[in-house]
Amino acid sequence: MSVNVTAVNESVNANGGTPRPWLQPRGVGRPSTVAPFAPQIETWLRETPALSGAEVLRRAREVGYRGGKSALYELVRRLRIPVAATPGRKRARRGVLL
Length: 98
Fold this sequence. Notes:
This protein has 4 helices and no strands. It has a domain at 32-81. It is globular and about 45 Å long. Helix 3 (53-62) crosses helix 4 (69-79). The chain is mainly alpha-helical. Helix content is 39%, strand content 0%.
């Protein structure tokens, strides 16, 4: 098995880190229907971090996504940048704000 160095280099993100998760080889099973849309979804989430999963699904379907919502929501969960907590508010047990 030969390795294409150019392809590997292109799959490594800009800062020289590890390849992005959706570009890594998958195990046995069906090919991912959401992987081709990952770069676009990543851009949407970078532009609007609070974008809901339902809105991402709506936008993805507008540009041709025909896969299931669970696969897309899982990708959104992995790509989402954590939103910083509101300063001055503490969270009590079971998600109740104090």
